[in-house]
Fold this sequence. Notes:
By secondary structure, this protein is mostly beta strands. The chain folds into 2 domains: 32-164, Sandwich (Immunoglobulin-like), CATH 2.60.40; 168-292, Immunoglobulin-like (Sandwich). Helices cover 9% and strands 47% of the residues. The strands form 5 sheets. Strands 13, 14, 16, 17, 18, 20 and 21 form a 7-stranded antiparallel beta sheet that branches. A hairpin with an 8-residue loop joins strand 16 and strand 17 (232-239). The longest helix has 27 residues, at 2-28. It is rod-shaped. The chain starts with a helix and ends with a strand.
Amino acid sequence: xxxxxxxxxxxxxxxxxxxxxxxxxxxxxxxxxxxxxxxxxxxxxxxxxxxxxxxxxxxxxxxxxxxxxxxxxxxxxxxxxxxxxxxxxxxxxxxxxxxxxxxxxxxxxxxxxxxxxxxxxxxxxxxxxxxxxxxxxxxxxxxxxxxxxxxxxxxxxxxxxxxxxxxxxxxxxxxxxxxxxxxxxxxxxxxxxxxxxxxxxxxxxxxxxxxxxxxxxxxxxxxxxxxxxxxxxxxxxxxxxxxxxxxxxxxxxxxxxxxxxxxxxxxxxxxxxxxxxxxxxxxxxxxxxxxxxx
Length: 294
């Protein structure tokens, strides 16, 4: 009788242990109630800025139980935004600057913060600098796959859009500096009739543009310290081989959108008659101004 009682006691203890484990497992289960993504509005991309542009998305997951969330992006959406020009390339990153892969299965564990709305985390959308895309609106729809405790539980479509701003940029290089910059010089040394020099103009634009060239001295080199008779030397200037009219308010040319966002142009200056001029230093300032036509 004693032996039977011991066996029954062991069976009861075993059954009680199983029931306790099952109840604890039920309490730990993760149940996702809703998933939403909030996008940043009004993001503007400047193609020739000296920085990458970064947009922000906010992922919000309402859930019950013990949850550890991960995220993957599905390959149904290419990593680019579509618009009036060539696509704008983008990459998705977490706040640790890790790239979020777009194969749909390789999840990233993210550090969520708990708020009144649920578990929330920021996602960065990076637009690399230097993409000379035509001005306008660009957008695309992406698909995010949510993982809870290692298992895929939800998929959500989310749109993202930006505006590419019309932008132009101009750099110059003359014979006094070998590198491109905001200013350049032409040093003729001893002035001689017919001598010529050229300066390079590097234009970056994502749309049609206007280039205006003006002369402070209206197409003449003037003595830097004297005025009066024989203190000016005339010269002729050309932009890409076309003569400029600098005697009035300047000369302008309009150009279509560069195919790859870049145009290289040149200004050539040829010295006129120097006979009988007063000895000394002479100079002028040519100003090149570029504006968008959009």
